[in-house]
Amino acid sequence: MGAGHSHPLYRDGHSVVHHAPAEVKIAGLVAFVLAVVATPREMIWPFALYAVIVLVVWRVARIPLRWILPRMLIEAPFLVLAVLLPFAEGGQRVHVAGLQLSVAGLWAAWGIVVKGTLGVAASLTVAATTSARELPLALSRLGVPGLITSMLVLMIRYIDLLSAEISRMRMARISRGDSPRALHQAGAIAKGVGALFLRSYERGERVYLAMTSRGFDGRVPELAIVGARPRATSVQWIGALTPAAAAITVAGAAWILR
């Protein structure tokens, strides 16, 4: 893991959020998402407040909407399920624009869309302000098992290499007269996916053997990252967890006023 490596979702900046230790941002993200998920979907106003909290954090982190909103389209495939639920669910039905829709399905679709969108927005906020080199030490400080930490970090580290491998394989097929959009090439595409899996597996074995031969035992030592920030202070914990604390307060109020 090179010290200068950054994942594609990282946005370089010098805001207070960027300079906060990664472990406090990860803890705040988990607490915020849990508060959003625990909120009754029938309550509309809490989700508006959650959105305000996210917008305030974006403002403090100096993340423009034109940069982050297009990246939120990553959740688009999951919204297909939400669109189908009002038609597939049973129970009481209502007429909307000439269509008979399930009330339970509408509420379920609303819950998936709003909670998923807020979760993606919060996750992208942490990703945009946290470089990949900060993750190993942050996860270790939070007590995440070393095996899980290694898997997550290596996945982020080598996703660019896998993307480059896919591009080379695609270019090799095209140069040999292959048409990736042709239906009859589905078999060749499937074989290419299998070859990519085998190459990735073999690369993973080589990387693991190289790491263990150099004394890696699954733990990320404090000095493993050049220029790593010191452990978060009490003030930094309080500041970073303020949005999460606000979300937990909103969730508690929603349950009380339900």
TrEMBL record:
Transmembrane segments: 43-61, 68-87, 107-127, 139-159, 237-257
Predominant location category: membrane
GO cellular component: ATP-binding cassette (ABC) transporter complex
InterPro entries: ABC/ECF_trnsptr_transmembrane (IPR003339), ECF_CbiQ (IPR012809), ECF_transporter_component (IPR051611)
Keyword Transmembrane: yes
GO biological process, one term: cobalt ion transport
Keywords of the record: Cell membrane, Membrane, Transmembrane, Transmembrane helix
Membrane-topology annotation of the record: Multi-pass membrane protein
Subcellular location: Cell membrane
Identification of the protein by name: Cobalt ECF transporter T component CbiQ
Species this chain originates from: Mycolicibacterium anyangense
Gene: cbiQ
